[in-house]
Amino acid sequence: AAAMKQAQDATAYEQVERAYQKQTPIFAGRTRVVGKKIAASKLRFWRDAGLGFKTPREAIEGTYVDKKCPFTGNVSIRGHVFRAVVRSNKMKRTIIVRRDYLHFIHKYNRYEKRHRNIPVHCSPCFSVEEGDQVIIGQCRPLVQDCSLQCPQGHEVVREQEDVQQVLNGFPANT
To answer: CA of 12: how far to CAs of 4, 8, 34, 42, 140, in Å?
Structure first.
């Protein structure tokens, strides 16, 4: 009985949704064979996302289930990869990032500053706050308005004034 309990605990994932959460490549109904140990590596699916992104420890050892995670789900990162600043993290597994860029005006032969607020899927293996710089990469459309992933988060420790400067996109008046 204790061996069955241990096998069930090993395959237990965070069940916080109405639907049963499981990783697709892992068979959750596997019964324990007497005398054999189940390797922990076979109870959790994770992979290398590629493009030089290191798989976080939380993705390897964690218990979350996210089918849109580039490390534990069925989403690949391809196309554009760029940096942005986190504006909001109030949604579940989705953050809003601000991407600043320069737009060239031919008439005046000059550049102007522009920005976009972009929704990005953020895996539960990252804990990002407002003002953090993140690297985001393009993937297939996840929902109607979100087709970007956050494969790497950089936590930046700043004071509150500096965070507001970054979020507003303007330097301080000093």
So the answer is: 12, 6, 20, 13, 29
Which tens digits make up the pLDDT trace of 117-128?
A: 999 888 888 888
Distances (CA, A) of 113 to 48, 104, 116, 120, 161: 36, 9, 11, 22, 22
The two structure tokens encoding residue 171: 């330097």
Long-range residue pairs from 33-40, CB within 8 A, at least 24 positions apart, any chain:
34/3, 38/7, 38/10, 40/10
* CB 122 within 8 Å of CB 96: no
Which residues of the chain fall short of a pLDDT of 50?
Answer: 1-11, 155-166, 170, 172-174
How many CB atoms are located within 10 Å of the residue 71 CB? 23
Q: Which two tokens stand for residue 18?
A: 């109405």
Q: Could you give the CA distance from residue 134 to residue 156 in angstroms, rounded to a whole number?
A: 10
- Our measurement of the distance from residue 127's CA atom to the centroid of its chain's CA atoms, rounded to an integer in Å, reads 9
